[in-house]
Amino acid sequence: MAKIDFGGVVEEVIMSDEFPLEKAREVLKNETIAILGYGVQGPAQALNLRDNGFSVIIGQLEGDAFWNKAIADGFVPGENLFPIAEAAKRGTIIMVLLSDAGQAATWDIVKANLNEGDALHFSHGFSIVYKEQTKIIPPANVDVTLVAPKGSGRSVRDNFLNGEGINSSFAVFQDFTGRAKERALAIGIAIGSGYLFETTFEKEVYSDLTGERGVLMGCLAGTMEAQYNLLRKNGHSPSEAFNETVEELTQSLIRLVDQNGMDWMFSNCSITAQRGALDWAPRFRDAVAPVFEQLYASVKTGKETEIVMTAASAPDYREVVLKKELDAIKNSEMWKAGAAVRKLRPANRNK
């Protein structure tokens, strides 16, 4: 493990050059990797594994849209594409990449097809940590591991195709074989991780649920909407409001933060922008801190997962409830303005 100083705190991480692909192939040479679920993370991880030369099969509800997507991606029914029960039975590493609600719904099927010494593998700690809600309690005779890429399935695949690794966390919940950690690290490298840092199932799910409800999605969307609405209320055009709220952030500033850090970006903007940002950042920090406290408590107590499980169990959730909420965002003035602005980008003008 490499020891890296993260702002004064030294952590040990696994780099891809320390645990190269050749080592991962050696560790997994006798394994059949079964990916259950071909929805969000499933395609990216499956395709990366296949491209890296690993034995991978898919488990999916036969005949649904995700089954057909797997066929379109080159998986063959009866050869490396099977119903969930059959894939779980054939696999020695069973990667459970179904939705959180889907994992709970299919657990009895998966559990019935586990063999002693198998590895039950996740990309999220949800099902194991909130077992009171999901009812997922692994048998004692299997390994239980996790590798959680820090990005969407699309990012996992795009980074792989671009020759870039994606950061991932890993954890071992149960080590029956004595090889759980080695298997988890091998999977992490095999799906295209650039480096892996150790965590626990609990810490992974607490940080993940907080992050996606906070800065990564919920807070970001809400803050954008607040600023856009303020500018519009004060007479700014939709184009101006969107450019100053979203376009400049996504097309310019966030890329500088990504490449060099926030301090560098502050150092390389006008003194007017710099002074204003430095003065107002603490005010925003202090304003949202209580909201984040409430959010983390809601995650830790299981309230957030209860909301998810209840919503997802409704038969019309995706087709009616979720569609209505997403359509409201899509059809808002702000994101209609965004669609127009994106079409004006030079690369999109002739499409």
Plain-language structure description:
The mean pLDDT is 94. The termini are far apart. Helix 4 (84-90) crosses helix 5 and helix 11 (218-233) runs antiparallel to helix 12 (238-260). Helices cover 56% and strands 15% of the residues. It has helices at residues 21-27, 42-51, 65-72, 84-90, 100-112, 126-129, 131-134, 153-161, 180-190, 201-213, 218-233, 238-260, 262-267, 271-300, 303-313, 317-330, 333-343, and strands spanning 2-6, 9-15, 33-36, 56-59, 81-82, 93-96, 119-122, 143-149, 166-174, 193-198. The protein has two domains: 2-199, Rossmann fold; 211-348, no CATH class. The chain has a ten-stranded mixed beta sheet, with helices on both faces. By secondary structure, it is an alpha/beta fold.
- The portion of residues forming beta strands comes to 5-15%
Strand adjacency order, main sheet: 1-2-10-9-8-7-6-3-4-5
The total tally of domains equals: 2
Q: What is the name of the CATH architecture of the largest domain?
A: 3-Layer(aba) Sandwich
CATH topology of the largest domain: Rossmann fold
CATH superfamily of the largest domain: NAD(P)-binding Rossmann-like Domain
Alpha-carbon distance between the termini?
Answer: 47 Å
How many distinct helices? 17
Structural category: alpha/beta
Q: Cα-atom Rg, whole angstroms? A: 22 Å
Profile the largest sheet: 10 strands, mixed
Could you name the ranges where pLDDT drops below 50 across 5 or more consecutive residues?
Answer: none
